[in-house]
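=== Discrete structure encoding ===
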Amino acid sequence: MYALADCNNFFASCERVFRPELNGKPVIVLSNNDGCAVARSNEAKALGIKMGAPLFQIKDIVKKHDVAVFSGNFALYGDMSRRVQEVLRRYSPSVEQYSIDEAFMDLNGIETDFDAYAKKISADCYRSTGIPVSVGIAPTKTLAKIASKLCKQYPKLKGGCYMWRPQDIEKVLRRFPVADVWGIGRRTVPKLATMGVKTAWDYTQLPEAAVRKLFALPGFRTWKELRGEPCIEFDDILEDRQSICVSRSFTKEITSADALCEQIANFAETAVHKLRQQHSLCLEMAVFAFTNRFKEGSPQTHASVLAAFPDGTDDHMAFVTAAVNATREMFQDGYGYKKAGVVITKLISKAHMSGSVFVDTKEEERSRKLSSAMDAVNSVYGDGTLRFGIQGDGVIWSSREYQSPHYTTKWEDIPTVSVK
């Protein structure tokens, strides 16, 4: 058996943990620069607020219904996700994190009442973290994902659904839209519609030969999984990212080299922090910046510079220094830069990298200790506590008008409780 644990309206739920007075009220979370709604509570969805709706288009709804609006607090969401994962590991020796708010659990070898088990996992997640989690258990990962969706549709399931009897699976699949099946791409749906396939059950009734021919291996695997045959591999170790991008649009144009260097230095520091978390080294970094292409009549440019690290590195100072040098190389007076960022590529595991005889081992050890010390301090006192002078105050020029405190990742934002 497999389980899929899916956090309900995750970003909005994270905000509600520390603002319980918002339970039962509409809540939305915005994208970078407070542009669009990227997360909505059920109450917000009921008001007709669509995913991706620009804030300026829904301001009347927000004002009329007193919708709680938050800027994305991704440090908080990442930490809350980690806490949920820790709870899930109490119930399965193998947990595969699928996204920030979803994880598969391998339950093979566990003998128990799975319906009660699903509800217990859900209840423990809520008790331990305050995040509501829907847990679906089924013979395959695809069916488990469908079972988790049922929890959200039917509150009487109390957060847990065990779907295993063939007659129950058929009943659910006959009503489940094929477009909502995990593994069915958007471009596949119109093709299925021409074949009269509207539900997940319709898809399972297609001949095997036709599925193999028309939808290749991924579609065939989904077909088999819906029929109760597990064939999508389970991996409890996340694959390392092959590239890491950190970029932002600015609320106002940047016209000075020093100001642009400051922002890109912060992007580089964030990127190397992510690199070190997955224990990888980087061989190449691209630094880019461009103007506002929507601003008619203004001079336009799109500049980028590559910085190479032939021996591979995860050193904070090396990244920040290279990013600043690249920025100064590509900067041109007379332009207003609206967006910039860094992309680090050609990533390799530290375990697979051999040392170079041309590297100054003493300097390398000094840099390693400095980076490790920065990681240690920032992990305890919050990201950005220690930074290089060129990074300025660490503030990115982006709109965060509705930013909530970093309740779990900064000492100064930890909630206080007074006893009277």
